Amino acid sequence: MRVHELSHFRANVEAIADRLATRGFAFDVEQWKVLDTERRAAVTEAEQLKAQRNAQSMEIGKLKKAGADTTAVQAEVRAMGDRITELDAKVVAVDERFRDLLTAIPNLPHESVPTGASADDNAEIKRVGTPRTFDFEPKAHWDLGVDLGILDFERAAKITGARFAVYFGQGARLERALMNFMLDVHTRDHGYTEVFPPFLVNSASLFGTGNLPKFGADLFKIENSDYWLAPTAEVPVTNLLRDETLEPEQLPIHFCSYTSCFRSEAGSHGRDVRGIIRQHQFQKVELVKFTTAETSYDEHEKLTQDAEDILERLGLPYRRMLLCTGDMGFSSAKTYDLEVWLPGQATYKEISSCSNFEAFQARRAGIRVRTGKGKSEYAHTINGSGLAVGRTWVAIVENYQQADGSVAVPAVLQPYLQAEVITKSGILR
What we know:
Blueprint lengths: L5 H6 L1 H9 L7 H37 L5 H33 L19 E6 L12 H8 L2 E2 L1 H6 L6 E2 L1 H20 L4 E3 L4 E3 H7 L10 E2 L5 E3 L4 H5 L6 E2 L6 E10 L18 E11 L4 H18 L4 E5 L11 E9 L4 E10 L3 H6 L2 E5 L2 E4 L1 E9 H11 L7 E2 L5 H4 L3 E2 L7
């Protein structure tokens, strides 16, 4: 849906407001109509005055040729010019208010997205894998990792603060092994091109992906600069093509990227305060696609399957959830969440969100695709975690824990970790 095209919005404002309401977003249609009426009136009056001014200017020429006094007519023309300037400025000001309004409006949900108010209304699409039955009481990773000497929260709090962690020994190697494994699978088997972007991004990049201006409180800003710590590789990788027009034969473009991610978690309200589920700094392998409107939903399904493939190769039980209108992210038109089973917590936790943004981000970032001679349209962007490395670390440790407190290493990771079992470390203990 072309939610940021002013002409389309103006022509369909009530239908768009109804669709936005399914997201819990209240759009003031009457305020919009008042502004629109003001703008139309100013434009109409200005056009009429410009026509009158042109006519009067011609009349002045005739009067001068006839030797007549043109003082009064010239005064009228000057007054018209002043009024036209005033009206043009008013139109510019109203257009700026329209842009501000449109900037704060989320994307419209795709027609296949279920209507709902919260996560309770999300739809489970499928489950893959059977949660393991333990003959002992499984531990949560925050106990198991500390007991093994591979995870340390106290020293992280000493050197930085709350919601940070330090990995030691095989814990650090497991993080690195997961990153390399994911990148290898996505580049070798799924056809993505690896990108390693800066971790610092500017405000224009955050605007392009929909993080600014609405979500500034969720970000870390570098003082006295226009630099921010990237909350996800989605931001720098999507903006690689900002303000560019692509040729159709270039698409689809598939990028994958490993980065650290930084989030203030301002809106988490105490959720997941234990362990490393919700940290201020975490690592992620991100999948980003650029495509056309005709293929974007097929590419969205493929990207989601690529993320699922990592879970399946690791032997981790998971489920795919289709988010309802009230639980989707600001920029998304449709989102699948992949949730992995965590036996130490006896619950499924999100490990990847795979979203189709349609043209929402591309419009903000100016990413176009040429469609013919002198013509172009906005590209569609898609992304998802493939996967969140820290949460995958958690899932490995909890699902593969053994009665003696060690952790078996999944077969696909053993060549990376050069070990079959993670055992207790004597370092700093």
